[in-house]
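Take a specimen:
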Amino acid sequence: MSPALDSILSSKENDSIKQLRYTQLFESYKRQNNYTQLGADAHELAKWHYKKKSKENTIYYTQLAIDAKKKVIPFDKESLKNSYINLGYFYYKYENYKDAIEAFKKAVPFKKKSLNVRAYNYLANCYHKFQDPYNSVENRLKVFQYLDPAKDQQKIINNHINVAFSYRNIGQVETGKKVIRHLLLADSIVKNMDKPSVEDEYIITSNLAVQHHDNGHIEYTKNISKENLKKAIFYYNKALLLAKKIKNKKYECSTYYNLGLTYIYLDTDIAKSYFDKALSLVNHKPTLLKSIYFGYGKNAYKEKQYDQAIKYYERSIAGFFNIVNPTIDWQTNEEQLAKVDQKLFILEILKIKINTYLDKGIAANDQKSFLLALKTLEIADKLIEIMLTSEASYKTKLKWRDLASEIYIIGLEACYQGNLLDKAFYLMEKNKALLLMQDLNRTKKELPEKVLEKELAFKNSISSLETKKQGLSDQKQDSLSILVFDKKEELKRFHDSISEFHPEYFLSKEIPKVLSLSQIKPKKDEVIIQYTMAERIGYTTPYGYGMVISDKGTKIFKLKKIKELIEDIKTLRRLLNQPFKTSEDITTYKQTSNNIYKTLFPKEIGASLQGKKVTIIPDHMLGMIPFEALITDIDKSTYLIEESEINYAFSLTFQEKNKSIKRAANQDFLGIAPVNFDNELTPLKNSTKEIAYANDLYDGSLLIDQEATKENFVKRIKDYKILHLATHADASDSITPWIAFRNSKLTDLELNSLQSQAELVVLSACNTSLGKISRGEGILSLARGFFKSGANTVIPSLWSTNDKATANITSDFYKNLSEGQTKSAALRTAKLNYLNNNTDAEASPHYWASLVLIGDSGTLLPQTNNLLYLWIGLGLVFLILIVYLFKTQKKKSIL
């Protein structure tokens, strides 16, 4: 701080006079181009205003300091970063966590290690406030590299504890192991100190107890582990002794509460006694009151005292909104939900409250309870939307989507019990649409091509400025250094926004509007069957539901024997991966696929499918099987494809939105067949046949052998209505899914960044539809990648295909399609032709069932055919006109 500013601030003049004087001082600095002093004084003045609790002036003068320091010659990067860290700190204190994150990101890294520790800790705290444990962990881990093991032992202990806490909030089995590892590392340091901190011992012991409780809790394991719960109790009792030793009533209150939670699964009477003890001490920690009510509610639920449990949950939720005694009809609104902290905890309470209403309804056969469950779900649904449009990381949003899926399927049970069809359809569609529609709703300015252009512009600008610096004076170089610094900071922020596993520019913050059941109007010959299965419900086997929609009406049904269904699907997948070799293979296949058929199509529903076009909307593991290859009658060995025309959709809402996209490709067909590959992939000798035959029917281009490069494909993807890739691919690659071209692989992330105009994409490659089932995201497949790129229909493969059989089927498919059959009818006819023309092992579903049609199933005639039909039509009109004129003239002649 300059003597001039110090003199102003220490004077006894009122604040208005002081403001006038330091404003005049700053103006004089600007006239003198004295940005060094302006930056220094504005920095100090901001701190003075912070102490005076003037928020507006604090932010204003910190920003003024930053703007001034950018103009200082010689440029002082560390001084500028010091103002950025102050800006981040002020925003953090004013609870503006979004802007705080941006400021801290501009501040790091520093030359001074202690400032890095401070900045990364605050970044982690900000992400914690957003309930984003992934980014919180990432920044906590960065702190370690700036700490000295000899000098910073206490900071290292604190950071291990903080890292453990963030890992625990991720809530996975693997991260649970990391929690214990970091806590034990902290514990070993504490025990080796000359004067160990009892408070540190308490915190470490208490957190070890919490993690063992989580490991033994139903949310983390298939069964409650009493062994882990007993370990948790051991650590809690040890923590309780430590809390009493340091006479910390807050710690005692928390420990009694946690003991109560643990005993719920062992002895509800003991659990209640611990909640009572926590309640008696809650004045020492008032923020714990809502958690204690939650504990009472869970305990009552375990005792099947449903009404009592619901009352406790209501009091717990109301506590988040500072409502002490909520009335019976009190409900939170969307504005309150948006502002409240601990949204994830509230969502967990709402989930268990919905489950409680559901169990009460089933136990008492009470229709009102099912309606109340769905009313509670409406609040949870609003909260889910708010959370999914926040600034949290993609991984965190996946975790929230997973929880949303659980809540929706619990709601489906209420719909099933109460036969509430409209709400059931909404929940089924919403669950799937959340996975797909946000990716489709991206805006034009967010398109990847623009992103790549922007990145290139940044790099070119930086390179140009660096070139200009060469040969200039030191003063002029410093001036350019400021511009280079600004550009690099902009580029860094730009990279931060797109650096996650799923780039941010693929995500819209717009929550999809889901179609209503009344908007679905199937034709007389159409049947739609939608399925929903959750990833898990507390790691127990989830319920599964189906809904059949036809012109005859709508019905919801519950899938039975889910465990057996899952095992049958695994067996069927194994059998489909290769041709039948023995009669035992055939017998096992028939029995397994028929079991699946009877589970997925109850008797009265199966009978209604014959001769119909059936749209299947699968979910979870059901996306792993071709429904058309299911055996409907063991004695007759009848496949479903012989009775019905089958096509698939990700969701009806997604399909409707996708169909609305305007596509204007000017050429018909692009076929890609690398045949041979620069890596060790097996050559595909028959791949040229399938694209060559298609190209005879649909005019276009072929990229074969050396021309089938990734670069050529990327350049041409926008120009064609049909894209046919006859190559290798793997959607289940553990690192990243890919499609092989002659020279290299196209990854799913690269695919997502492309734009196509394709009405149809055929992926006659290995395993393009089946990928990893990711929690919160469903089956990750290359087919989904092409839909994100803009495709209207995709025909992927469910397993490694036989290129000869595939060539026969796809050639027949294009012939049927060019003759006017719909896409789904053309594929069905091609499969039936193959099935009828082959016997024994070659008739195995392995050969003909791999390709499935997802998306729009309408017609797609060649443009040449369209022109032919146009000329024929014009010819007929011309002929009719001539005949009419001839008859008219003849009639006049007679007269």
Notes: The chain has 35 helices and 18 strands. The CA atoms of residues 91 and 699 lie 60 Å apart. Residues 863-894 form the longest helix (32 residues).
